């Protein structure tokens, strides 16, 4: 049976609560998870996770799912990569989300560390997060870099 959820690291609950509830930087735990996943993957930060709460896959957008599939494909965890819109939530045909969970856990630690000195209030946290996003936006990035990572058939 296919998995219908991804796990969050149970040891990181306080970070999730701080970013979502305390400083209201994200609207949902899914949003925290995706930001952490992106940060973790782009910074090559992975961490083994401890059992914790789950986020149902049906909550993720098709773009979120495609991003997860791309990471799993690049890490050789998902063989049947497709960019076409499919009824993913109804019949997931990939089961190993461990790499996604590890990148999200490693990314959350890095992201939280980047924002830690600005978590005293919402406005400060939002400004620090925007500054961090601008830092990444200003980096040179080429889709050729991503294409070069794809395994040859």
Cα-atom radius of gyration:
16 Å
Q: How widely separated are the two ends? A: 29 Å
Q: What is the general shape?
A: globular
> Which residue ranges are poorly predicted, with pLDDT under 50 across at least 5 consecutive positions?
85-93
Which class of secondary structure composition applies to the elements?
mainly alpha
Number of helices: 6
Helix content: 40-55%
Widest beta sheet: strand line-up: 1-2
Q: Beta-strand level of the residues, as a percent range? A: under 5%
SSE topology string? EHHEHHHH
Task: Walk me through what this model shows.
- With 153 residues, the chain is mainly alpha-helical.
- The protein has one domain.
- The chain has helices at 13-22, 29-42, 62-74, 98-115, 122-137, 143-149, and strands at 5-7, 54-56.
- It comes from Exiguobacterium marinum.
What's the SSE blueprint?
Elements: E1 5-7, H1 13-22, H2 29-42, E2 54-56, H3 62-74, H4 98-115, H5 122-137, H6 143-149
Antiparallel strand pairs: 1-2
